[in-house]
């Protein structure tokens, strides 16, 4: 169980990164996608390499006492830079300004990382400290400065992110605002972490022992903070993706009545190739639309455009809008044509010269309107009239 408070958040962040990996592969040129992926990967690395068992293992493998200290500090600095870079790309704006700010941020925090490595190389830290390195070496030249540089850089990023996220949250709504509020809470906790570290280091400099602030209070605060920040970044993107997926599945379901209405008239051999049940929603919508278009083409000789015109006029007279009248009239014509086709098993009807394109050419949105209109009383009346006509003419 030792180090579990570090490995659990690291595992959660790795899973989140794995979920983003397909998107990164497909859109690796997108700065926002890259920034999100890097943030998740760096955040998980922070917790993994900051766990005492990992610290001991890295020190042992490298043969350098406390080698993990600058490694963890550099990763923490990279995490701060990743947060700033993600926010810069997330907010958008002029491309030149975004690139300039990104380069400035990268250069600044790269300099901090180099400074930490140089300071550790110049200092001496022969005694391995797994949890209290910050306070144990606070009187050691260069090592003290390395600790302060990392704390200042981390605090600066937390202050900037807190201010920017709070300002932005006042101008947006929905999941984006919820994500920004979570991020504000996470970066406030980052400031609590930094305050605990600064207090412990300052106490040691003045001869007091407040090490528990650094070894006991700070780690769980950092864990919760990282989870809030990661959730805040991912939440709006996840909600956006789920919303798009929901809309696609809604379109697929709404096309169902029209698809089922036309299915009997399409010859079995000409139907679209069946796709697996786990296929993406957009592919299933595409297949359903293709099936509907095939059905419309097979019904073309049986369309009664006079019926459509009469139905449209009646719906308009009842107070409906133009779009609803068009959809209802098209649905009535389709329903009547299906029954006319069923009454002509030998296909004796001569095809008309006019092809039916009012629904097919408009795309899925208009097809959805027609599909929903199939349930209207006007269309049901058309079905009954067609059925009574067929029974009276055997």
TrEMBL record:
| Any Pfam family the entry gives | DUF6545
Q: Provide the alphabetized UniProt keywords.
A: Membrane, Transmembrane, Transmembrane helix
Concerning InterPro entries, the annotation shows: DUF6545, MAB_1171c-like
Task: Pinpoint the DUF6545 domain residues.
Answer: 246-374
Locate the transmembrane regions by residue number: 6-25, 32-50, 70-89, 101-122, 142-164, 176-201, 221-239
Its domain of life reads: Bacteria
**Is Transferase a UniProt keyword of this protein?**
no
The record ties this protein, via NCBIfam families, to: MAB_1171c_fam
Protein name, UniProt field: DUF6545 domain-containing protein
């Amino acid at each position: 169980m030792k180090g579990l408070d570090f490995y659990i958040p690291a595992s959660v962040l790795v899973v989140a990164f794995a979920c983003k990996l397909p998107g990164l592969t497909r859109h690796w040129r997108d700065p926002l996608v890259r920034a999100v992926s890097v943030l998740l990967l760096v955040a998980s690395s922070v917790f993994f390499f900051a766990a005492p068992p990992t610290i001991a293992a890295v020190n042992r493998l490298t043969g350098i006492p406390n080698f993990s200290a600058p490694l963890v500090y550099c990763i923490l600095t990279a995490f701060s830079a990743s947060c700033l870079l993600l926010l810069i790309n997330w907010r958008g704006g002029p491309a030149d300004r975004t690139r300039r700010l990104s380069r400035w941020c990268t250069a600044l925090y790269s300099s901090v990382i180099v400074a930490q490595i140089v300071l550790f190389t110049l200092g001496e830290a022969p005694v391995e400290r797994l949890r209290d390195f910050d306070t144990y070496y606070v009187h050691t030249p260069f090592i003290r400065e390395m600790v302060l540089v990392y704390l200042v850089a981390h605090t600066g990023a937390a202050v900037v992110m807190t201010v920017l996220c709070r300002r932005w949250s006042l101008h947006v709504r929905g999941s984006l605002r919820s994500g920004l509020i979570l991020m504000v809470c996470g970066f406030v906790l980052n400031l609590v972490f930094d305050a605990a570290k600064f207090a412990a280091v300052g106490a040691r400099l003045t001869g007091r022992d407040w090490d528990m602030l650094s070894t006991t209070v700070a780690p769980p605060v950092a864990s919760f903070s990282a989870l809030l920040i990661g959730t805040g970044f991912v939440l709006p993107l996840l909600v956006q993706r789920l919303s798009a997926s929901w809309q696609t599945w809604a379109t697929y379901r709404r096309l169902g009545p029209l698809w089922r209405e036309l299915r009997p008239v399409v010859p079995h051999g000409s139907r679209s190739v069946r796709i697996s049940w786990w296929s993406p929603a957009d592919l299933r919508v595409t297949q359903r639309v293709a099936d509907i278009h095939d059905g419309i083409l097979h019904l073309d000789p049986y369309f009664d455009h006079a019926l459509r015109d009469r139905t449209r006029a009646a719906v308009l007279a009842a107070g409906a809008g133009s779009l609803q009248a068009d959809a209802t009239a098209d649905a009535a014509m389709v329903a009547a044509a299906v029954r006319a086709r069923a009454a002509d098993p030998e296909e004796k009807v001569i095809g008309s010269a006019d092809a039916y394109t009012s629904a097919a050419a408009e795309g899925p949105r208009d097809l959805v309107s027609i599909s929903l209109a199939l349930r209207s009383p006007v269309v049901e009346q058309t079905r009954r009239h067609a059925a009574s006509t067929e029974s009276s003419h055997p």
